[in-house]
Amino acid sequence: MIRATLFLWVAVLASSLSNVLTRRGMVAVGPLEDYRPGPLVRYGLAAVTNKHVLLGLVAGAVNFLLWLIVLSWADVSWALPMNAVEYVVTAVLAIAWLKERVSPRRWGAIGLITVGVACVMGSW
Amino acid sequence: MKLRVTLVMLVAIVAAGAGNVCLSKGMQLVGSLDAYDPASLAKFFLAAVTSPWVVGGILLELANYFLWLAVLSWSDVSWALPLNALEYILVGLAAAVFLGERVGPVRWLGIAFIAAGVALLMDSWEHPETPPAA
Q: Each residue of B57-88: pLDDT tens digit?
């Protein structure tokens, strides 16, 4: 259980990192506005040759490989809900780094997820 | 429009849940990873990517990814995002029925809390004072 939890948390961090990197890269690439095949291919190429998007893909691949390892050890009904801890990590990072204001509703949501993850973790 | 968004999201969520159940079935057949040297890791991942269950799971996750991109490309879908919380419940049910996992009351309680929390968090996206954090 300890190794599964540990690997799962590293996988969640990789997923978080992948989201942040991909978002940063895609902001630089810009919005998709032309859906014809030519421009679509050019847009795809611009995306996958962007440094941040590439790093985001690598982090996503790391997340997937770790997820496969976790599934070789754990019940999927245990491991999948544990991924929700990512929402808590994202919220905490937004508060700590971006000094984002958090509404009572979102605090409630974060609280529910935290309690839920604790229950699921304890149900190994 | 609302019907289309709901349907596509439901298909995406079912694909994601079914994908994870397939991945789980495949990895249970591959067996527990117990040695971390390069040769063991290579053997483990080779067995994984040649398992039909894992390949099927990956295809379902890819389908989910592209459907999700389609949903996000439509405007004003924030009201539909709490539906994502359904995946936790679906996977709990499917794991009990198809994989024979013992999902006890504590785990169900945890899943319920998480699903409620995720639904509430997603729902808060539509309120202008709380922009999405991710």
A: 999 999 999 898 888 888 778 888 889 999 99
Query: Would the ipTM clear 0.90, i.e. be above it?
Result: no
Q: Does A99 touch chain B (CB under 8 A)?
A: no
CA distance A120 to A90: 20
Q: How far apart are CA B46 and CA B56, in angstroms?
A: 15
Contacts with B77 (C-beta within 8 Å, 6 or more apart), sequence order: B5, B71
Residue B81 corresponds to which amino acid?
Answer: L
Q: Are A102 and A95 in contact (CB under 8 A)?
A: yes
> What integer best gives the mean pLDDT of chain A?
92
Among B73, B104, B121, beta carbon nearest to A109: B121
The answer to whether B18 touches B62, Cβ cutoff 8 Å, is no
Q: How far is CA A109 from CA A10, A41, A84, A96, B47, in A?
A: 23, 39, 11, 18, 39
The nearest CA of chain A is from the CA of B82 a distance in Å of 12
CA distance A68 to chain B (A): 7
Determine what percent of chain B is predicted with pLDDT higher than 90: 72
Evaluate whether B17 touches B92 at the Cβ level (below 8 Å).
no
